[in-house]
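User
Class, as today's exercise, I want you to study this protein, comparing sequence with structure tokens, and judge whether sequence predicts the tokens.
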Amino acid sequence: MAKTKKLYRSSKNRVLFGVCGGLGEYFNLDAVIFRLLFVALLFGGGSGLVIYILFAIIIPPEEEAKK
């Protein structure tokens, strides 16, 4: 049986809320890629900050996701 992946905010690889670390772990990529993407979106119109805050609210912390 295949193990289901769950998206959560990382508690190990975090700078602010752990959103980029969690996305990196979920997609098996370096979290720096997601950090650069959010910064590019921030300077490209401001949507990066809004999306990051929404992800920080919606995505559960690692402790809650592993219960």
Q: What stands out?
A: The mean pLDDT is 88. The CA atoms of residues 8 and 44 lie 26 Å apart.
